[in-house]
Amino acid sequence: MNLLPVTVALAGLLALWELAIALFRVPGFVLPRPLDIATAVMENPGLYASGMLLTALEAIGGFAAGAALGFGLAVLMVLFRPLERALVPIAIAISSVPSIAFIPLALVWFGLGPVSKVAMAALAVVFVVLLNTLNGLKRPDREAINLLRSFGAGRLGILWRLQLPAAMPAVVTGLRVGLARSTIAVIVAEMLGAYAGIGQIIYQATVQVDALHVWAGVAVATAGSLLLNAVLVAVDRRLVWWS
């Protein structure tokens, strides 16, 4: 992954941020300077590191569960068409509702601990991966499928040799969207009810009207999300090396 464009864009954004504060004399409680935000993080690195670690683990756990379930259901739907006709309308109906709308229910059902955050992350991911994978598995044309059948390939052989490789770009797209959604779902769930996590840190700073530490929490969450996305991009290049 080429980090130069990202680094240049980030440096430009920070420079514009500092310039805007200087030109318009923006008060610190409205928009702190980037250096002040970095200082706030460094004054209590353990708090932010532990909070981000918990949030990342919850997001990764829910992401893995949701991605595995979505991928598995998509494969079953391709193999058993009646299952697709029965479940896809339900999946579309549920996915049309923002996943964060289910957070109060998750907190009631699973409590304020990590289980409710993992459940929300999984819900945010499962239907994105399901629908993207299903679309990708249907990508090969009928002629290619018939050609494999003429050589004696069965359903599983066609799935393994043709449909899964053709579906990988769509699967990876679903994974990348799902990872972002899982992180958002976990952070919002932590803000609404949690014992720890970066979302809870942001919430506590908001309650105390501490804009500096709100921004510090947002900055740490952004950095953690970028790191997770970078890992997924590396996996993407391994899985879809031909693109």
How would you characterize the overall build of this protein?
The mean pLDDT is 89. This protein has one domain (44-239): MetI-like (MetI-like fold), CATH 1.10.3720.10. The chain is elongated and about 70 Å long. The chain is built from 10 helices and no strands. It is 82% helix and 0% strand. It has 243 residues and is mainly α.
Report the structural category.
Answer: mainly alpha
How would you sum up the major sheet? Answer: none
CATH evolutionary superfamily: MetI-like
In terms of DSSP E residues, the strand content is under 5%
Quantity of strands, as a count: 0
Reported by name, the CATH topology is MetI-like fold
Helix content: over 70%
Taken together, the total number of domains comes to 1
Radius of gyration: 22 Å
What descriptive keywords fit this protein?
243 residues, 10 helices, mainly alpha, MetI-like fold
Task: Outline the fold blueprint.
Elements: H1 4-24, H2 34-43, H3 45-79, H4 81-95, H5 103-110, H6 114-137, H7 142-150, H8 155-192, H9 198-207, H10 211-239
Helix pairs in contact: 2-10, 3-4, 3-6, 3-8, 3-9, 3-10, 4-6, 5-6, 6-8, 8-9, 8-10, 9-10
Summarize this structure briefly.
The protein is mostly helical. The protein contains ten helices and no strands.
